[in-house]
């Protein structure tokens, strides 16, 4: 496996382990670079820290003393650690560079790098691009927020082998030289303000995906997303726009008869695309731009789009039970994602929502409730959701304590022909360690309803 060479720093602090920290520490160890690990979990509960201790590494666990910065000239932090963390603040005060493992591993890139970000749709788009490249015979790798972390995947990348990488604002904020050959910004909407503290910081973090692009690179953008289109896009990448509007002048768009058209040539009808919803159509158009850039044939593209039905926890169809259709959209961790999910269906919807209260109000969510007949709320944000519904005149709201209880209540209140949709509009961390764990609990509960 590849290692770092000509590394310009003497000693590195790896702050926070988890998947990214472990991979970063392993890369530094294998590269013969001096580093220190600092993780909040005590050593007796921390198998990863134990392993690095046994390898002879400098490991401090259970607390975050400022002395961990002694002799350090670079900090590689877990993306989830906020910048108001005292260690990060002190590092910045000392003018120490603070990066994420995406930046640390970037020098290992040897082939085409495709990076995808956006408030919503990242995982679906990343997976679809990966599958299109795979069908086209390119033997791609997948990394970032999906699959293995960049520090692992880029070590395996062979020359000319594409890597498709999903990136969050948390990861991108900690980049400095990172430069993808193809950078996609799907959309921008209010999210993660508990971490970024302002929309300006959130947007600027997302836009870092373009900052180092040259005129040999490609920046792929959503022409219809109001926030995206209003930004001054950094870097010199060639701009390629996609749009689901039939009166758009984007390179890839829809015709008035709902045909997907790329640079004036019709490819297929939007009705042939297996993924439901206009928001997924945007993901599809962005993915086609990549497929066309790699000269994948129309036949392969069409076949893949006819059969690709998405990924787990992203508008995932579960099953039909007593004429009710169950969908798992646990990945919808913000209002915009849930609004798009609701608009993807024409049938009546019983919606399950709730989770971590990040301080935002939910009035905007209820504006999308044209076909929502009942809303079952649970978790830390349940009361706030209930009050927002009352303000917007939506009265069919039921408060529950847990996702299991909410699912059972949704089934009880539903009618034949209804869709029962978990699309929480909130993060999962009040009751679950991840949106995946939340979705798995929903799946298990639905199966038990039989």
From TrEMBL:
Reaction(s) catalysed by this chain's protein: UDP-N-acetyl-alpha-D-muramoyl-L-alanine + D-glutamate + ATP = UDP-N-acetyl-alpha-D-muramoyl-L-alanyl-D-glutamate + ADP + phosphate + H(+)
Enzyme class: ligase
Domain Mur ligase C-terminal: 313-426
One record GO biological process: peptidoglycan biosynthetic process
Single GO cellular component term: cytoplasm
Amino acids binding ATP: 118-124
EC number(s) from the headed UniProt entry: 6.3.2.9
Localization of this protein: Cytoplasm
Residue ranges constituting the Mur ligase central domain according to the UniProt record: 116-291
Molecular function GO labels: ATP binding; UDP-N-acetylmuramoylalanine-D-glutamate ligase activity
Recorded metabolic or biological pathway in which this protein acts: Cell wall biogenesis; peptidoglycan biosynthesis
Keywords attached to this entry: ATP-binding, Cell cycle, Cell division, Cell shape, Cell wall biogenesis/degradation, Cytoplasm, Ligase, Nucleotide-binding, Peptidoglycan synthesis
Domain of life from the UniProt record: Bacteria
Keyword Lyase: no
Pfam families per record: Mur_ligase_C, Mur_ligase_M, MurD-like_N
Cited HAMAP family: MurD
Function summary: Cell wall formation. Catalyzes the addition of glutamate to the nucleotide precursor UDP-N-acetylmuramoyl-L-alanine (UMA).
Protein family according to the UniProt entry: Belongs to the MurCDEF family.
Protein name as it appears in the record: UDP-N-acetylmuramoylalanine--D-glutamate ligase
Naturally occurring in which organism (per UniProt): Allobacillus salarius
